[in-house]
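ok trying again, last paste got cut off:
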Amino acid sequence: MNSSLDRNPVILVHGIWDTKTIFNTLSAHLTQLGWCVHSLNLTPNDGSLGLDSLAKQLADYISQTFEPEQAIDIVGYSMGGIVSRYYVQRLGGIHRVQRFITISSPHSGTLTAYSLPLPGYLDMRPNSGLLRDLYQDVTMLKRINFTSMWTPFDVMILPSHSSKMPVGKEVKVNVLLHRQMVTDIQSINALVEELKAPIKNKIPVKNE
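nice, full thing came through this time. structure:
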C-alpha cells in the first residue's frame, strides 16, 4: 500500500439524525491504516434543512480546511451521500474530489422519506426535484473514481437498490442493517479497497 503521503485526505459525511460520531469505528480503522480522516457535523441534522444547504456547509468546511490545490476523497453515508453528490455536481467539488464513495445513499429516493414533510425528507423522496436535477448530468461522475456501496437488506433505503447508480462502480455487501454499513468489517474492508484504487483520471485541481 502507498504511504500516507501519497493519499488524499478522506472526508466522511454523515446521514440524517446522525453526527460524525457514527464514524468512530471507521475513522479509527482508516487512521490506523494511514489515512488522514476528517469529518464534520451537518446542522441541523433532522431534515429541517434542504440538502443543498447542507452541501454548502460541506463546501465551506472543505474550503476552510484544505488548500485549494489539495485533492480530496469523500465518503458519504446515507443522506450524506446525496449531500456530497450535490457538492460534487453543483458546488465545484468535481474539480478537486478524486475518489467519491457513497454508502447506502438514496440516489433514487427512499419511501421512508415520506415519514415527515420536512425539506430534507422531501429532497430524498423518489423523483424529488433535487434528485431529478442531479440525475440530469450524472455522467459527470464518470470523470472521477465514483463507487456506490449498498446492501440488499437495507430497510432504511426502500427499495434498497435505490442506493445503486447508473454510473461508476457498484459494490454490494451483504450487511444486515443500514447503520452497520459504516461499522461492519466487511463493509469497511470494501471501502478501504475503493480508497486504495488508483485514480483513473487525474484531474488538475482548479484554484478557487
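cool. The CA atoms of residues 54 and 60 lie 10 Å apart. The first helix runs from residue 24 to 32.
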